[in-house]
Amino acid sequence: MLADNIKKIRLARGLTQQEAAELLGISSSVYSRYETGNRVPPLDMFEKMADIFDVSCDYLLGRESVTESTLTEYERDLVEAFRSADMRAREDAAKLLADHPGSEDK
């Protein structure tokens, strides 16, 4: 779960493994092992990951669901626009997204 969450958050932030490793001050090979689950980050690195990815340690561990702090700025903008839209616009947007094929369907 931890390895999957680390990768998911990195991708959501639009970072490569190399960029994430540089932000954390570690080699890309060490970082890669965290994402594959071949190595567990020490506590200080775990805390640093949470800070850099702007999520809680609980979120990294899979103990917390998606919150506003786990969204990218773009996703927060979409949520805000959705919240301020009238019901018709909300329904249209939801239908558009539901009808749009996901990346796994391509």
Overall spatial form: elongated
Q: Count of DSSP helices?
A: 7
Which ranges are low-confidence, i.e. pLDDT below 50, for 5 or more consecutive residues? none
The end-to-end span amounts to 26 Å
Radius of gyration: 17 Å
Average pLDDT works out at: 85
> Which structural class is indicated by helix and strand composition?
mainly alpha
Order of helix and strand elements from N to C terminus: HHHHHHH
In total, how many beta strands?
0
Strand content: under 5%
Largest sheet: none
Helix content: 55-70%
Describe, in plain words, how this protein is organized in 3D.
It is a single chain. This protein is mainly α and about 110 residues long. It has seven helices and no strands. It has helices at about 1-10, 15-25, 30-35, 45-55, 55-60, 75-85, 85-100.
